[in-house]
Amino acid sequence: MSSMSRFLIIVRLILLLSLDIGAAPAPALAPVPAARTEVDPELTAGFSEGDMIISAEQRNGLRSDNYRWPNRTVYYYINNNIDQPHREQILVGLRKIEASSCLTFQEVTQDQKYYVNITSEPGGCFTAVGFQNRVQQMNLESYPLDEGCYRMGTIMHEMLHALGFYHEQSSADRDEYVRIAFENIEEGKEHNFEKFDNDKVDNFDQEYDYGSVLHYSPYGFSKNGEMTIVPFKEGAEKQMGQRLQMSQWDINKLNMMYKCPQQV
Ligand SMILES: *[C@@H]1O[C@H](CO)[C@@H](O)[C@H](O)[C@H]1NC(C)=O
Ligand SMILES: *[C@@H]1O[C@H](CO)[C@@H](O)[C@H](O)[C@H]1NC(C)=O
Ligand SMILES: [Zn+2]
User: Any binding details for the cofactor (predicted)?
Assistant: First the structure.
């Protein structure tokens, strides 16, 4: 990643944080939605495996209902500087999530107060995690179709973050399934390998899923080309980081999180 991109990410994080400070106090009962932004390693220098790279997350679903989109309806706005083919690609991703769940995606109308603002700026692929009850940005840096942030699985990966999921390897019990090889992680990127406590994230009774569209690639944020996430299950590294589609377990978890009346 260029130093310019890094700079932009930092600026953006600072902006997000300061926005948070200015926000109205949450109702007493509601845990304040943390404006946590997931930044994905797909595009960082140091590893590139064509279009079979990247991450993952799940079992890693935020427990609090405050992060769920009301009425299972996600409003979105696609910025005008995103051309028609890229727009279509995004919409196909959203339709695929719809087809696998009870969620509906709707383009914003003028009076909409909360929505996903889909941008295509430098800085990689990133988004706020879960419903934020305000305009929340999802960035898909411009890439040719089916590359980088415009891989179908990456579009769905980012939207799953916005729906309330962290990365699969953030699961509370991930250490039973993978070893995080901190010795191979780029300096300053260690925070991307956090795991969350069981009281914050929910596995929805699904198994650890190496093939989740929300799992990082084994080489995510590697500084030396060695694995940063080493699976205990033999051969699982071939599944990790797939960005083609949601796995069946991804779909199950999404349906459970949103209490879909009928499992799809
Ligand atoms: C909830 O979502 C459904 C399906 O998208 C829609 O028909 C209905 O009008 C929505 N209800 C409210 C209160 O927004
Ligand atoms: C979306 O976000 C970009 C970048 O922060 C901002 O420039 C733009 O005004 C936003 N658009 C909408 C409609 O929220
Ligand atoms: Zn991610």
Answer: Binds 1 zinc ion per subunit.
The answer to whether residue 13 is domain-embedded is: no
Among the options 42, 141, 158, 168, which is catalytic? 158
pTM of the model: 0.80
Query: Which tens digit of pLDDT belongs to each residue from 16-73?
Result: 433 333 333 333 333 434 456 777 766 443 333 222 223 333 347 777 788 899 999 9
Ligand nearest to the CA of 134: 2
Q: How many domains does the chain have?
A: 1
Other residues' Cβ atoms within 10 Å of the Cβ of residue 105: 18
The interaxial angle of helices 248-257 and 152-163, nearest 10 deg, is: 30
Closest CA to 231 of 211, 257, 204: 211
Is 167 annotated to bind a ligand? Reply is yes
Lining ligand 1 with CB less than 6 A are 71, 73, 104
Distance between CA atoms of residues 110 and 107, nearest Å: 10
| CB distance 174 to 214 below 8 Å | no
Work out whether strand 104-107 and strand 73-78 pair parallel, antiparallel, or are unpaired.
Answer: parallel
- For residue 97, what are the domain limits? 33-257
* Residue 49 forms part of a structural domain: yes
